[in-house]
Amino acid sequence: MTRDFLTNLEESLPNLSKGHRSVAEYILSGNGGVARMTAAALAEACGVSESTVVRFASAMGFDGYHALQRSVGESLKRRMTTVQRIEDADGNLEDGRVLDSVLRADADKIIDTLASIDRAAFTNAADMLLSARRIYIIGMRSSAVLAQFMNHYFRLLFNNVSLVCPSGGSEIFEHLINLSEGDVALAISFPRYSTGTVKAVEFARRQGAGVIALTDGKTSPIAPLADALLIAKTDMASFVDSLVAPMSIINAMIVYIGKLRTADVADTFGRLEQIWNEYNVFAATGKGSSSGESSVGGRRVKEKSNAKENKISRGSEALIVGTTPDPC
Q1: Less Cβ around it within 10 Å: N or C end of the chain?
Q2: Rounded to an integer, what distance in angstroms lies between the CA atom of residue 42 and that of residue 39?
C-alpha cells in the first residue's frame, strides 16, 4: 500500500458489508486505542464477532490482524494533532521513567531502521548527489533542523549546495526557481508532513530534477515522487518529533560520500584548519587555556585581567556569534 491506510478505508466505506463497515467506522472515529487492542477487544467494541475483525483485516489486504494494527497505528499517529500527541504520550510514559523510555525508544528506531533500510536506494542516492549539477536540500518545520545539519556538512563536501527551508508560501519557489534537469532535490519530511515540502518536491519533479526523499514510509506524500527513497523509523514522544533515525542516515550519507571523495575532503579540511588557526575559531583546550592570552591572526593578545570584565567580554562575543542570521 502506497497511500495512507485510513484514506483508503474512507474511500472504500460505502462498499463494505454491514459488519466490516462497523469495524471501519470505529477505526475511523480516531480512537487511538485501536492500535493496542486485541482482535477480540476490537470486535467487542464494534459489536461484531472476532472472526469478522480477522476477515476485515484480510479484506483490507493485510496478512493478518497484527499487520492491520500496525498500519492503523501509523496512520493515526500521522493524523494526530499536537494536543492528541501530548495526551497519548501522557498515558504511555511513566513520570519516573521518561528518560529511560525515550532513550530506549530512540535506540529501537535506529535498530529497526538499520534492519529495514534499502541499501540499494542509499547507494543510488549517493550516486545522484555525486553527479548532480546542483543539490537542493529541502526541510521545513522540525525537519529544517535535519536539513541544516546536512547542509553544514554537505557544503564541506560539495560547492553546489543550496538550503531550502522557508516558512512557506511562494518563497519556496523563489528558492527553487533555477532548479532544472541535472539537479537533485533532497527532501526531508516526517509527520505531520509540511505541505510546503510536498509542493517543493512536486515542483522539482515537474522541472525534471532528480528527487531523493528521506521520510518515514511508502505512505508519505513525498515517497511516490522519489527516485531514491530512504525510510527512517520515527515516532512522536509527546509533542517532540523523534528524529534520531533520520539523523543517523544523514550521518551515514555524509561519511559514505566523504570516503568516496577522501582526497578532496582532506584538501578542504587542510585549508580550513589553517583558516581556523589563523582566526582563532575554536576555544583553547588543555594546558595554557586559562593563561589569560589568546592567539588572533598569529598575534598574542593580552586579555582583560579583571575577571568580571573578562566574563562580560566573552559573553558578548558569544552573543554576537550566536545571532548570525539563520538561513531558515
Answers
A1: N
A2: 5
Report which residue type is found at 52: T
What does the DSSP 8-state code read for residue 95?
Answer: G
CA distances from 98 to 92, 94, 112, 242 (A): 10, 6, 21, 14
Cross-strand pairs, 237: 240
Give the DSSP H/E element, type plus range, for residue 164.
strand 161-164
Residue 42 and residue 26: Cα distance in Å, rounded?
A: 9
Where do we find the cell 532535490? Answer: 185
Question: Beta strand 210-215 with 161-164: parallel, antiparallel or unpaired?
Answer: unpaired
Q: Which three cell numbers stand for residue 28?
A: 475511523
258-267's contacts with Cβ under 8 Å and 24+ in sequence apart are 258/157, 260/126, 260/130, 261/130, 261/157, 264/157, 265/156, 265/157
Q: Where do we find the cell 536506494? A: 121
Q: Enter the pTM of the model.
A: 0.69
Encode the chain (328 residues) as per-residue pLDDT tens digits.
445 677 788 888 888 999 999 999 888 886 557 777 899 999 998 999 999 999 999 998 888 898 888 888 777 666 666 555 555 555 555 556 778 888 888 899 999 999 999 999 999 999 999 999 999 999 998 899 999 999 999 999 999 999 997 765 678 888 899 999 999 999 999 988 889 999 999 999 999 999 999 999 888 899 999 999 999 988 665 557 789 999 999 999 999 999 999 898 899 989 999 999 989 888 877 655 544 444 444 444 444 444 444 443 444 333 333 434 455 6
Instruction: Dihedral sign for Cα 250, 254, 257, 259, please.
Output: negative
Complete domains list, the chain, with CATH: 5-79 (1.10.10.10), 112-263 (3.40.50.10490), 279-322 (no CATH)
